[in-house]
């Protein structure tokens, strides 16, 4: 399998990646479309003509985001209530969806919670939100995706997947000390493994699935980082103020570019089960890596992907 290379790079914006693409008549769902990368992803898809629904936890924030996108694109945006840590809202949204769904962007996420929090089911919150919630959503929307005959599922992972494989024997940190980055990393590895499995499981339905790292983008995501951590990643100026775009980081419009590429670009037509960054397929690393670029072998392992698919279905049946 040769590596997919496009004309785009780390500096490309969502608007540049989607220029010339007409999404009229296509329907798209973007989770977490209220801020950061999701907001810019929804905006770019809407600007290209798609009928976009943002699936959001906070309805007021959703309405504000929809008004913002409408003001810049002239397109109506639908807002749906979906809390990815609350199964009932996911199931209600999926059950209420009618007709084909052409694009699903699993974008919402939480990062590096300083303490171990769990859902009502006892699932560690980052695993529950970043992976299980999206898995329930994707599975609930399967028939709508299949009906689109060529649907694309795009999942926003992170280079932080390099920090941990899925620890199948103790996913919820019941028997090991909780560590924020291991928990986030595990959840993001799960999103890639699930993508690999989905691409295989649903190939006959003409549904493609790919995952990505968006780059470093200063958003609400970093709200759990303390000053030391923010300083370590270069996110503060000399006065200790957060920089909008620290050196080497991206703007939200650049951060949305790889999501939009995978959601709509002809450059990746038919491509499935792969992991991208900076608009191109990432290099597969020999070992987990430095946490910045490339994809770790533990995130593409076919056996772990099949195991996670089965384990996810089992957990969601509970
Ligand atoms: N910003 C970065 O540097 C960076 C780097 C790597 C990966 N990512 C990933 O990019 C994605 C988008 O993050 P962002 O940087 O735009 O952050 P953000 O905080 O601005 O956006 C995250 C979105 O997810 C939503 N969300 C969180 N929990 C939710 C829940 N339970 N149900 C529904 N929605 C929920 C939030 O409301 C928000 O709209 C995340 O998956 C994140 O892990 C971001």
Order of helices and strands: HEHEHEHEHHEHEHHHEEH
Chemical compounds bound to the protein: nicotinamide-adenine-dinucleotide
The count of strands amounts to 8
CATH architecture of the largest domain: 3-Layer(aba) Sandwich
Whole-number mean pLDDT = 96
Q: Kindly, what is the distance between the CA atoms of the first and last residues, rounded to a whole number of angstroms?
A: 38 Å
Low-confidence stretches: none
Count of the separate structural domains: 2
Q: Report the major sheet.
A: 8 strands, mixed
Highest CATH level, the class of the largest domain? Alpha Beta
Residue share in β-strands: 5-15%
Identify the notable features of this structure and list them briefly.
single chain; 318 residues; alpha/beta; Rossmann fold; 2 domains; eight-stranded mixed sheet; 11 helices; 8 strands; 38% helix; globular; binds nicotinamide-adenine-dinucleotide; SDR_fam
Structure description:
There is one protein chain. This protein is of the alpha/beta class. It has 2 domains: 14-215 and 254-317, Rossmann fold (3-Layer(aba) Sandwich); 223-249, no CATH class. 38% of the residues lie in helices and 11% in strands. The protein is built from 11 helices and 8 strands. It has helices spanning 14-18, 36-47, 59-73, 87-96, 125-140, 142-147, 180-201, 227-232, 252-255, 257-264, 302-317, and strands at residues 27-31, 51-56, 77-81, 103-106, 152-156, 208-213, 275-277, 280-281. It has an 8-stranded mixed β-sheet with strand order 3-2-1-4-5-6-7-8, sandwiched between helices. Strand 2, helix 3 and strand 3 form a beta-alpha-beta unit. Helix 2 (36-47) packs across helix 3 and helix 4 (87-96) packs parallel to helix 5 (125-140). It is globular and about 50 Å long. The mean pLDDT is 96. Nicotinamide-adenine-dinucleotide binds at residues 31-32, 34-38, 57, 82-85, 107-111, 129, 156, 158, 213-214, 216-217, 219-221.
């Amino acid at each position: 399998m040769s590596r997919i290379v496009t004309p785009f790079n780390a500096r490309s914006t969502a608007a540049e990646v989607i220029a010339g693409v007409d999404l009229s008549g296509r329907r798209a769902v973007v989770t977490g479309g209220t801020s950061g990368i999701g907001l810019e992803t929804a905006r770019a898809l809407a600007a290209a003509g798609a009928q976009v629904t943002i699936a959001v936890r906070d309805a007021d924030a959703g309405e504000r985001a929809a008004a913002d996108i409408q003001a810049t694109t002239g397109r109506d945006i639908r807002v749906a209530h979906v809390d990815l840590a609350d199964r009932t809202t996911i199931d209600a949204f999926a059950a209420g969806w009618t007709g084909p769904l052409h694009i699903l962007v699993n974008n919402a996420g939480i990062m590096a919670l300083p303490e171990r929090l769990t859902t009502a089911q006892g699932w560690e919150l980052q695993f529950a939100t970043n992976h299980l919630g999206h898995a329930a959503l994707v599975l609930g929307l399967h028939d709508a995706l299949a009906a689109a005959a060529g649907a694309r599922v795009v999942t926003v992972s992170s280079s932080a997947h390099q920090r941990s494989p899925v620890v199948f024997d103790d996913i919820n940190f019941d028997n090991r000390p909780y560590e924020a980055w291991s928990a986030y990393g595990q959840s993001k590895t799960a999103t890639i493994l699930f993508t690999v499995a989905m691409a295989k499981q649903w190939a006959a339905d003409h549904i493609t699935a790919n995952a990505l790292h968006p780059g470093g983008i200063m958003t609400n995501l970093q709200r759990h980082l303390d000053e030391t951590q923010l300083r370590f990643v270069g996110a503060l100026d000399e006065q200790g103020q957060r920089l909008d775009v620290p050196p080497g980081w991206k703007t939200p419009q650049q951060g949305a570019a790889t999501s939009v590429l995978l959601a709509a670009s002809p450059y990746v037509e038919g491509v499935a089960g792969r992991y991208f960054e900076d608009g191109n397929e990432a290099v597969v690393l020999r070992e987990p890596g430095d946490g910045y670029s490339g994809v770790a072998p533990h995130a593409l392992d076919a056996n772990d992907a099949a195991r996670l698919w089965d384990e996810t279905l089992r957990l969601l049946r509970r």
